[in-house]
TrEMBL record:
Its cofactor is [4Fe-4S] cluster. This is Radical SAM protein. SUPFAM superfamilies: Radical SAM enzymes (SSF102114). Keywords: Iron, Iron-sulfur, Metal-binding, Methyltransferase, S-adenosyl-L-methionine, Transferase. GO terms for molecular function: 4 iron, 4 sulfur cluster binding; catalytic activity; cobalamin binding; metal ion binding. GO terms for cellular component: cytosol. Residues 156-374 form the Radical SAM core domain. Pfam families: B12-binding (PF02310), Radical_SAM (PF04055).
Amino acid sequence: MKVKMILPALTEALSPFWRSIKYHLFPPLGLATIAAFFDDNDEIDLQDEHVEVLKLDDEPDLVVIQVYITSAYRAYELADHYRKKGCYVVLGGLHVTSLPQEATPHADTIFIGPGEDTWPHFLHDFRAGHPEKIYQSKIRSLVGVPPVRRDLIKRYHYLIPNSIVVSRGCPHHCDFCYKENFYQGGKSFYTQPVDDALAEIDRLPGKHLYFLDDHLFANQAFAAELFTGMQGMGRVWQGAATVESILKPGLLEKAVDAGLKSVFIGFETINVANLRSQHKYHNLNRDYHRAIQRLRDYGVMVNASFVYGMDNDDATVFSRTVEWAIQEGVETATFHILTPYPGTALYARMVAENRLTVDNWDLYDTRHVVYRPALMNPEILAQGYWQSYRDFYRWDAIWQGAQSKDNWRDRFRHLLYSGAWKKAEPIWDILIRLKQVNRLLPMLENVLNGFNSNHNSPPGKANLPWKPDFKGENY
């Protein structure tokens, strides 16, 4: 059987004028994961349109397309193209789960929710000649799931080819989170067996790993066993956690001993009322400053995420947030405009209040205002969003953030990491076009390692100050 698997690109990723590094950071694993259920003699072509030009003159027996909201129109265009050729087309992913009625006219079969339990059933039915129109996930388990088909991933297109996922979902339930609807009808958070996760790590070449899990630290027992098993592997890795999990004693130490060098944290807002309104309760009464200082003491860099446009945000939110992040010495920051994704509680509330102003899914990318904010006009929100990036990544701001570090080695690492992320974008563009971006991975590993620093030892062994009496506001 000939199979075509496609991850359609966002519109901006197809631009002939600019190639953003963010689409070449690491390979998405959704399609490569379900590809593992095919037979060995099936011929599979997996294409990520963000990093390569699609081949559309083929006529496979089966076409599998993963759909996100901002690639939905492109996905439907591709689906219609192959259906006209007589190919059998299936659609799945976050957007299909959120709006199955929209996706159905473009597909022969749609998948709702995760595919680990439904995909084997579909393949059996398809080979037997009687596939169903809808497959809906109900059994949530990663036990016995075969290893990701990494042989289908074109590693040279990505700066960090070793992306990995060892869990699904998140135990928290924030109003604006897209995953809420995706995991309805079953468990919303579950993990691989630790031995399977360690086996997957062990078969990855090189040193660097990027965990794409929504919240790698969520199951403390699982994470602790995983990190213990990773000790001695010589890995350098990045992942995502919450403020709450970073403040818990013991778990961060195990992660650092296993090679943690950089962590993504969804601070989202420094306004307590916003946290309550979005049901992000796990950030309430957490000392953001202490969490950052705790990571700094272990030499772990921070990628902070913030969301603008919540109902308690006014026009001062931009400067306050940026200034706070700079003063805290955050190495990199990502800013987002609040986006009400279909299927979320936020979307339902916006519809009920008649506040949505845009129904073009291309603009639901957290960079456009698609609703009426409560305390500012849409133009101010959009301008403040873009200004935040300019202000945070000014050279003087980067320098100020670097000055918060305790020594020149860490200051230099801050300058190099932050500067390379935004100030070197023209260089990234050239490397991407020359298909040479992967050659910078050793440099990234060296920067993440802190130039062979000894930070990844417990306080007291690394000659670093341990400060148990942090003073900072609870956000």
